[in-house]
Amino acid sequence: MAIKYLLDSCALLAYVYKEIGDDIVKSILNKADKGHVALYMNKINLFEAYYDILRSEDSLQAEKFYSMMQISSVIIIDGISDAVFREAGRLKTQYRMSLADSIALGEASTLGAYVLTSDHHEFDPIEQNEEINFIWIR
Fold first, then answer.
1. Rounded to an integer, what distance in angstroms lies between the CA atom of residue 28 and that of residue 15?
2. Eight-class DSSP state of 112
3. Pick from 44, 46, 49, 69: CA 20 to 30 A from residue 22's CA?
4. Pairwise CA distance, residues 75 & 41, whole Å
5. What are the structural domains, with CATH classification, of the chain?
6. 1 pLDDT more than 90
7. pLDDT (tens digit per residue) in 53-74
8. What letter does residue 53 receive in the DSSP assignment?
């Protein structure tokens, strides 16, 4: 069985904007392209990245990005299962995090996936107290 990763929007944006840690994201994307790992992202978290590009650049760049993601090897989860719904609700209540972050962690927990992120501010307490594994890109 392939190792599973869940892509957080901040990690994806680091790759898009060629920020520190983009090499780690690129490496996992390449492994996913070759079928060596499974790389997931919930559409809510994809929306966060789309919104960031739309806000900081323009609609053309945001649409190019979205089109690229639709043909990428990233498995876009279009919806929220009951298990993710419940786990995200539990995590959001306990840690008072954003809705999108709670969904990302709910997905990772349900899939048994490593969270690919740079969001220490939100996720350090979770890493210390939950059985969710993180790959920090910086």
1. 11
2. T
3. 44
4. 6
5. 3-119 (3.40.50.1010)
6. no
7. 999 999 999 999 999 999 999 9
8. H
Crossing angle of helices 99-111/82-95, nearest 10°? 130
130/28 Cα distance (integer angstroms): 24
Contact yes or no for 72/41 (Cβ under 8 A): no
- Tokens describing residue 28: 């996992």
Strands of 3-7's sheet in order across? 75-77, 37-42, 3-7, 114-117, 134-136
Q: For residues 44 and 50, give the distance between their C-alpha atoms in angstroms, rounded to a whole number.
A: 10
Residue 27 neighbours by CB under 8 Å, 6+ apart: none
Structure tokens at 39: 């790389």
And the tokens for 46?
Answer: 């994809």
Residue 130's region, left for phi above 0, alpha for psi from -120 to 50, else beta, is beta
Sequence length of the chain is 138
CB 137 within 8 A of CB 82: no
